[in-house]
Amino acid sequence: MKVNPNIFRAYDIRGIYPKDLNEGVTYKIGLAFSNFLKNVKEVVVGRDYRLSSPSLRDALLKGLQEGGKDIVDLGEVPVPVFYFGIIHYAKKAGLMITASHLGKEYNGIKLQKERAIPIIGETGIYEIRGMILKNQLKKIEKRTKIIKKDIVQDYIDYLFSRIKLARPLKVILDTGNGACGEIPEIIFRKLGCDVKTLYKEPDGRFPNHNADPHDPETLKDLQKEVIKKKTDFGIAYDGDGDRVGLVDEKGRVVSADFILMMLARQALAYKKGNIVYEIRVSKALFEDAKNHGGKVFISKIGHAYVLLETLKKKAIFGGEFTGHLYFNYCYYPYDDGIFTGLKLAEIISQLPKLSDYVDSLPRYHASPEIFIDSSDEEKFKLIRNLQQYLKANHYNFIDIDGARINFPRGWALIRASNTGPLIKCRFEGETKEDLIEIEKKALKIFKKVGIPITKKTYQDLGLKE
C-alpha cells in the first residue's frame, strides 16, 4: 500500500478520506505509534463525529493492540475532553481521530504524550512517518484489553468548578453540528445562564455550515440569532471544540486580536508574567500586554508551537490568532474552546456591554488573513525563495515562520500553511492608508519571487490590480 507522506504534517496527521487517510494507513499509524512509544503500556483514544471516524477508530485500535498497547476508549468526544482524559487521569499517551474545522471529506489524527503535550513533526510525527514509509513496523505478541470510559460528566464538573460569573448572562451558542454537542450549554446552564444552542446535534456531514469560527462566513447564523434574541453575546465552536469565535450583543464579530487582548488582560490582572503570541498578531497586542505588566515572546504559528513556547517561557497565557489558547495560570496546559468561551463569559459578566469594551481596545488597521492556493510540494519552496530574496536585498524581516516584513509604519506576513495546500498572508498598518500602501508593496515583492498572486488576492484585500 502506497502512503502519501504529505499527510504527516507539522503538528498532526491530516488527509482526504479515503484517498490519503484510510483504514490501511490508520492501522499502520497505530502500529507505528506503539513502536514509537515503547515504554507506554496504555493509550487513550477518542474520535469526532465524522462519518469516517468509526472505521478509522477500528483500524487504529487494531494497530495499537498489535503493537502491544492497552486502550482507554473515550468514544465520540470533543478534543478538550480527550486531552482531559489524558492529563486528569495521569495517562501517558493518546490519539484523537479528528480533522478539526476541515471539510467533511477530511479526517486526521492528533498525537499526544503525557500531560497531553502534542507530539509534533520534530518530536515524533516525522519519525513515525519514516517507520511507515520504510516498513519498519513490529508486531508484539501480547494479550491486550480495551476499556470503554465515559468521562464527560467529570469534565463538565471540573470546568464548572473553575468559573465564576459576576452575573447571569443571556447567550446563544453555535456548536455547528460538531463534537461539542450540548456540553457547553450544560455548563452555562449550571452557571445560571439563559442559553440556547444552534445546531446542537453532532453530524459529521456538517449540514448547516462548516464548523470553523475563524471564518466569518460561518458566524452569520449566530450573528442573526444574537440580534433577534437580544443576548449579551454569542459563542461559536469549531468542529472538535478546541477554538471559539465571539459575537457581541450588536451582532458584530469580535476579531481574534481583541479576543487575545481581552484574555491576556484577564490573565495579567490575576498574575503578572510572560505572555506568548504567535507571529500573526497585531502590534497592538504586544504594546497592550507590556502596558498591563506582561512580557511578550513570539512563537511560530501552530497550536503546538505556541503551547511549547508557553511552557518553555513559563508563560501565564499564550494564544494563537486562529483561537488556540492556553491558560496556564488557571487551567491544564491544552487548548480548550469550551473553557475559552467560559473565560470570555467571566469577562463579559463584569461589563455593562461587550461592544463598548471592544470599541475601547487599542488597535491598528489590519487585513483579514488571505489565502493563496499552492500545492504542498510548492508552498515551502516559494517561501524559501522569498526569504532568500529578502535577505539578499537587505529587508528587515523575521523568519521564524515564513517572513514577517517590517515596514516603517506596519508589517506584512506571508507563510506556508501547515494544515493545507495554501500560502497565508496578513498585513497591518498604523493607519488605513499605511495598510493599503503596505499591501501593495508586499504583493509586488511576492510576485517577484513567483508566489501566485491573482486577481482574487487583490479582490480579497479590496485593492485594484
From TrEMBL:
Domain Alpha-D-phosphohexomutase alpha/beta/alpha: 6-133, 154-251, 257-362
InterPro entries: A-D-PHexomutase_a/b/a-I, A-D-PHexomutase_a/b/a-I/II/III, A-D-PHexomutase_a/b/a-II, A-D-PHexomutase_a/b/a-III, A-D-PHexomutase_C, A-D-PHexomutase_C_sf, Alpha-D-phosphohexomutase_SF
Domain of life according to the entry: Bacteria
Record keywords: Isomerase, Magnesium, Metal-binding, Phosphoprotein
UniProt KW Metal-binding keyword: yes
Record family assignment: Belongs to the phosphohexose mutase family.
Record-given protein name: Phosphomannomutase
Organism: Candidatus Nealsonbacteria bacterium CG23_combo_of_CG06-09_8_20_14_all_36_12
